[in-house]
User: Which sequence fits this backbone?
C-alpha cells in the first residue's frame, strides 16, 4: 500500500501512539493477563511495535508493505532494538510459534475489502494465539467514515512538506476512498510529489463481534475511543478485545 512516500509517512501522523500502548496494558490488567510475546499485525512503520518493545514485551511486527517494514527496521536499528519484522499478508500469515497476544492498531481491519477477508485474518490470529491469548484491534467506525471523513478534504503541512488528503464516501458500497498527495521540498528548491490511493471498508460493531465469536473467540469486549466506555452512535474509533 505504501511505496515511495513511506519515508515521509510518519511526518503527518497526528496520533498519540503512547496512548495506544497504555490502553493495551490496561486491557491486560483488566483481563488479568501478563503477556510476554506480542505481535503487531499491520505494523506499518513500527511506531506501536517499537513502543511495545520499549515497554518490555517480546514484540514482532507483520506488514504487507516492504517499504514500511524497511522504515520500521531502520528505526529499530537506530535504537538498537532487535525486532522481528515479517513481510506477510494479514489474511494468510503463519507464525512458527504461538504467541500470547496479537494487536492490530489504527484501523488496519478497515483496509480489508469485505467480511470474507476479515474472517481469514481472524482465523489466522486465532491459530497463532496460545490458549487464553488475547486479540486487540480497533476500527474506524461507520460514523467516522461517513460523517467525519466523508467527502471532506484535509491539508497538513510543516516547514518542508505538505499533504492534501481528499476523502470520498460511497455509502452504497460501504467504502470511503482516500487520495493522498504529499509534496516534499527537494534539492532543486522545488517539490517532489508522492501520491497514494487507499480505501477503507465500513464494518459494524455487531458484525465483527459475531464474526469473532464464529471464529472461536470468547469474552468479546468493545470500547470507545481509547476509553473503557461502551461505543455509542458517535464513537469514532471502536476497540475490540477477545480471547482464544
Assistant:
Amino acid at each position: 500500500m505504501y511505496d515511495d512516500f513511506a519515508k515521509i509517512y510518519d511526518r503527518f501522523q497526528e496520533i498519540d501512539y503512547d496512548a495506544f500502548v497504555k490502553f493495551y496494558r490496561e486491557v491486560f490488567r483488566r483481563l488479568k493477563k501478563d503477556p510476554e510475546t506480542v505481535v503487531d499485525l499491520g505494523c506499518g512503520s513500527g511506531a506501536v511495535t517499537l513502543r511495545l518493545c520499549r515497554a518490555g514485551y517480546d514484540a514482532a511486527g507483520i506488514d504487507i508493505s516492504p517499504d514500511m517494514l524497511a522504515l520500521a527496521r531502520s528505526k529499530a536499528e537506530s535504537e538498537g532494538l532487535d525486532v522481528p519484522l515479517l513481510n506477510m499478508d494479514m489474511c494468510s500469515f503463519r507464525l512458527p510459534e504461538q504467541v500470547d497476544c496479537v494487536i492490530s492498531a489504527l484501523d488496519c481491519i478497515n483496509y480489508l475489502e469485505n467480511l470474507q477477508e476479515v474472517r481469514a485474518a481472524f482465523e489466522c490470529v486465532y491459530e497463532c494465539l496460545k490458549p487464553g491469548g488475547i486479540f486487540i484491534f480497533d476500527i474506524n467506525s461507520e460514523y467516522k467514515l461517513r460523517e467525519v471523513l466523508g467527502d471532506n478534504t484535509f491539508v497538513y503541512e510543516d516547514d518542508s512538506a505538505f499533504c492534501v488528503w481528499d476523502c470520498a464516501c460511497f455509502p452504497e458500497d460501504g467504502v470511503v476512498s482516500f487520495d493522498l498527495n504529499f509534496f516534499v521540498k527537494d534539492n532543486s528548491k522545488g517539490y517532489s510529489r508522492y501520491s497514494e490511493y487507499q480505501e477503507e471498508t465500513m464494518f459494524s460493531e455487531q458484525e465483527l463481534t459475531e464474526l469473532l465469536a464464529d471464529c472461536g473467540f470468547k469474552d468479546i469486549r468493545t470500547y470507545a475511543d481509547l476509553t473503557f466506555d461502551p461505543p455509542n452512535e458517535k464513537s469514532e474509533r471502536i476497540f475490540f478485545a477477545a480471547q482464544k
